[in-house]
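Intended use. Records like the one below are meant for learning the mapping from a protein sequence to its folded structure. Do not use them to infer anything beyond what is encoded.
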Amino acid sequence: MKNLSKTLVVVAGPTAVGKTDMAVRLALEWQTEIISADSRQFYRELNIGTAKPDMEQLSKAKHHFIGHLSIHDYYNVSRFENDVLQLLEKLFINHDVVLMVGGSGLYIDAVCQGIDDFPDPTPELRRYLKGIYHDEGIGKLQEMLLKLDPEYYCLADTGNPSRLLRALEVCLTTGQKFSELRLNYRKQRDFRIIKIALNLSRPELFSRIATRVDLMMEKGLLEEAQQLLPFRQLNALNTVGYKEIFEYLDSNINLSQAIGNIKTNTRRYAKRQLTWFKKNGDYEWFRPDQESEIIEWVGGK
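Structure written out for the chain above:
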C-alpha cells in the first residue's frame, strides 16, 4: 500500500453479505478509518433494524457517518457528498488510504462521481408534499411526477417515496424538470478511487438475510419499532424492517407474517442493490472470505 497515492477504497455489495466485517479487517490491515455509505445507518434512533456495526467492530476501527443524524433531521445525498469530501480532506492528511463501505449505491456514486447540486425546498413545500403523501399515498406522488416530468418518471424508482418527493421538490422549487437539471458528466476528484464489491450465491445470501432478521428480532427489533411508532411518517422510517413491524402493530398482520415480510422485502432490496452495482463496470467482485485476495488486488492497482 505504500506505493499508492491518496486512495478511496469502496467496499460495496448487498445487505447481509459481510461488508462491515470485511471493512474492519481491511481498516486494521491498512491502519485507516471507515466512512459509512449506508443511508439507513445515519440515524441514531435506528439501531437494530439497520444492522449498525456493533461495539466490537466500532472499537476496532474508527467509523464516520454512523448515527450522526436524528430521524427528525433533513438530509440528502448532495449534503452527504459535500460532508464526505470535506472529511476526506482531513483523513488524507494522515492516511494514504480511506475506506468507504455500504450498500447505498446512490450515496457511493455521489462521492465517487458527483451529484447534482439542487436547491433545498422551503419548509412549507416540504410539509405540503409530505402531507400529500401521508393523506393520499404514493400513487398521488407518482401521478404528480408523471405530469411534471414524464422523462424522469420513466427512469425513477417510482416505488421509493423519497426519490419521488425529492424530484417533486426540485420541479416545484425551480419550475424546471428534474430530468433536465441532472448532470450528465462526472465531477473530477483529486484522489484515486478503487471499487470492490462482495457477493455470495443467492442461496447463501438469502440464508444470511434470514438469519440476520431472526437475530434482529432476538435483539429487540419489535420493541425498537414500538418506540418509533409515533414517528412512522418520517422518511427515515420508510424502510424495510420497520414498515413491516408497523403493519403488525396496526393489527393488519400477525408477527410471523411481519417477520416473513421483512425477509422477503430484504431479499428484494438485496436484488436491487446487486442490479445497481453490476451496472457499474468499475467494481471488482469478491466473496466475503477473500480478504487476502482483496488486499493483493488493491495493492497491485
